[in-house]
Amino acid sequence: MLRPIVVGLDGSHESLAAADWAAREALRRGLPLRLVHAWEGLPADASDLPELEAPRHWARRILRGALDRLNERYPQLYLSGDQIARPAADALVAEGAESELLVLGSRSFSGFGGFMAGSVASATLAHAARPVVLVRAGQTLEDEHLPDTEGRPSAHAPYRAVVVGVDPAHSCEELLAFAFESATLRTAPLRVVYAWHLPYMPVAAEAKARRAMRETAEGTLDHLLGPWREKYPALELDVLAPEGRPPERLLDAAKDAGLLIVGRRIRPARLGAHIGPITHAMVHHVHCPIAVIPHE
Description:
Oligomer: single chain
Largest sheet: 10 strands, mixed
CATH class of the largest domain: Alpha Beta
CATH architecture of the largest domain: 3-Layer(aba) Sandwich
CATH topology of the largest domain: Rossmann fold
Number of strands: 10
Radius of gyration: 21 Å
Helix content: 25-40%
Low-confidence stretches: 109-117
Structural class: alpha/beta
Distance between the termini: 25 Å
Number of domains: 2
């Protein structure tokens, strides 16, 4: 049985943008799309108080409106939707566990705080067992593509690059599998980034150590990507091993990307759930959709 792509709805512009992105991704992957709206209100038969009817009506309207909108825009898509009476993060984690991919809207604010993913998205990210994609408000089909020859937004130009950040010290198989598949589905170039940082040492030793570390990083990437090159020989691959702190280098590499892919290590329950500092930075500062892939 095919796992659906699941999108969480809350009526916001961000969640509507996420629903559109999820619909396009479902068509690319040949998968059904399931819309979920979680609401902690009382069950329909819990009370006849008229003041409870308004929130119930609004909750139903969110789901119904999104279903109608997507049915009109993507008539070839197999689409379903459900309302779930439980806390949003709990509902999304449970739904995501049965999905191929969970897609959420990601809220953004200007100012010193940068981008904020929102409490529900953050809690879901930290506990999800399957890939999660965050989408900003305003993301459109044209944003997934390069501008046309005259510099105008276009849905017919080639796709923007897919970017994936890797750390060969940890498992990369899940990240690379998702990245190569995503790039192949889009016929887009794949940009693989492994940033390394020179530790403090005497100035006289820096040049030699820097050269050695760069060669080691490039060799490690070649070894890591060897089997994937063989599996996807037609895919355009751009391999980068820049010196610098990983969050900064990954942000640089993703400035013109259509999709950024990062990992989240699954931690033992006793240590609590976290998304890690690099993924945290990407979620808060990257403008394009970002896929977070849990891995051991």
